[in-house]
Design a protein that fits this description.
With about 260 residues, the protein is α+β, with helices and mostly antiparallel strands. It has helices spanning about 5-20, 40-55, 85-90, 155-160, 165-170, 180-190, 205-215, 250-260, and strands at about 30, 35-40, 60-65, 65-70, 75-85, 95-105, 105-115, 120-125, 130, 135, 150, 175, 195-200, 220, 240-245. The chain contains eight helices and 15 strands. The chain starts with a helix and ends with a helix.
Length: about 260
Amino acid sequence: MDELALAKELAEIGAEISMRHYSPEVHTSVKKDGSIVTIADREIEKAMRRRINEVFPDHAILGEEGGLEGDPSSPMWILDPIDGTNNYASGIPVFGNLIALRVEGRMEVGVINAPALGELYEAARGGGAFMNGQRIQVSEISSMTEATVCFGSYKRMLKRGYREQVENLVLSSRRDRSFGDFWGHMLVARGAVEAMAEPNLNIWDVAAVEVIVEEAGGKTSGFGGEHYPESRVLTRDQGEGSFLSTNGALHDEMVRVLGK
């Protein structure tokens, strides 16, 4: 089995378990970092880890719920069993199962399944990006006055000190929207919006997104234009970084504003 095929199988596992538990009454608990977790998050990650170990026992695994397993210098699977857990627990259908494979410091495979939306995104380096089997690509808009700009959370941007930058981007763009978590970045990849910015994400939030957006012709980076720090891969306790995805044509302008 090749790596992309396994990633898609893992996405199916995540979809089946998440939809089985999907309900506003799903049991939740609060983790040490203050975020919530559901029974589905933990069950999905355990099932994914079990399957990876069956197929690629020499690969490492890093997951949001279970941390790091194996040698981080080996090929590493990076898992977010449910991205958008707050949405999931509230009955909002914008949530996804995120799977990525990192090899020698580079994200090579990314798969995102949004089962309640009926959307499966996939990409492998050099092979293009697809949604439900159809090739996707970013938009060609090159002017901010024609662009739609997304933020995962306006409140979170303000708390992180980006009030002036957000106001600048909102006032200079055609439209602004808040489509949280992975989905805003997938809207960039499929050409529906031109940029998506989030100030504080962990590596499991961005790994699959990075491959899909870039294979669709877009660009990703931190707000300052830097690559998301590789050190974030090594443990689950090294914090968060900013993350920006764009159609490429507007990337430098977004970095110029956000990187101040």
